[in-house]
Amino acid sequence: xxxxxxxxxxxxxxxxxxxxxxxxxxxxxxxxxxxxxxxxxxxxxxxxxxxxxxxxxxxxxxxxxxxxxxxxxxxxxxxxxxx
Length: 83
Known about the structure:
This protein is mainly alpha-helical.
């Protein structure tokens, strides 16, 4: 019926969709838990996740700027030496 490649792609797609639904449900559960005595832990968890994402984003921006500068300043090193 389906070749192995197609089956793998379908399996990956289904896993991605399931993970998306699970994450959405976890977000709703966390929103409800914010109104319980667990709220400080939920806030701390969210704050830590946001700080981590912000840090990663800033590092990505800095690395991108460094790569652009290096490419611009040393474009001669990108050309093949044997051509």
